[in-house]
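Human:
I keep going back and forth on a fold encoding question. Comparing notes only helps if you start from a blank page. Show me how you would write down a chain together with its backbone fold. Write it directly below this note and I will take it from there.

Assistant:
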Amino acid sequence: MHSKIERNDGKFIRWLTRTSFFVFFFLQLASPGFAQETRKVRMAYSAFSVAFLNVFIAKDAGLFKKHGIDVELIQMAGPLPIAALSAGEIDYLTGFTTGLVAASQGAPLKGVMVTLRKPPFYLVSEPSVQKIEDLAGKRLGVDRIGSLQHLVARLLLKMKGVNPEKVIFTQTGSVSNTVTSLAQGALSAALLSGPHNVVMAQKGYRQIATADELPMSFPTSGLVIHEAKLKADSSRIKTIMRVMLDSIAFSQRESRWMIDYVKDKWKLEPKVAETVYTQWLSTLSADGKINLKDLQEYFDLAYAAKQIPAPVQVASVTDYTLLDQVLAGK
């Protein structure tokens, strides 16, 4: 048992060493004055998507400022945010699933809060595809083979009685590439996040399945931190959690503000923005949690489908202690 842990730790350390060099220069480009901005909280998100809408509104609606936090949001994808958080170059990672997978492989990280109980993912097809069974033998676009999108697409197909092995999964690299490929006819269908699913539906494409149909809960976004900060920086972590909970309450309360915000942020028509907002609202986790049993079921499925390289023991990489204190008013 110990030798396996040591091998995992060694593998992670070697990977971190290789990646940290690139992280340093990425962060310098993102914020040239980094050395002088030590009071800032630095938070990473992976894509310009409604999956991270609660983070965007927390900043733009002044909720971070209300709690005395000067936040810097940094878009980082791939292995960069894991390496940056592990090395202490950023303070928070919002990609919850990504963080827990890395933690299971030896990264010193803990998932402490969930903001979406299910990802806002939608299976959208070209007009000629009448039903999900028609995708057999056709190309289906996802951002990356082995990603959360890829797993959700496979689960949706299987749930609807379609063998995922009979569908040709195509890696596009980004949401914008996926949308372009679908619009140009290079794909017969794609797994899209909001607002792209609504925009494409307005153009005549079909929404044939949604992640909300899946029986288990599993997160896209939340808060992942360096485990060393759980005690050393618990006060600030709890403040960030209060900001996130405030953003959830704000989103539910201020519907008109939210619709206008989504409209302006993604340059949408008012009715499209309202649909995007309504769909996103249904995915929120009101108390910042997902049952650990549900989380374990998701990661077990991901491992069985070979979407992740190693099993994830959710209880060992998730810690709701500080969140429970915040919810109790402490």
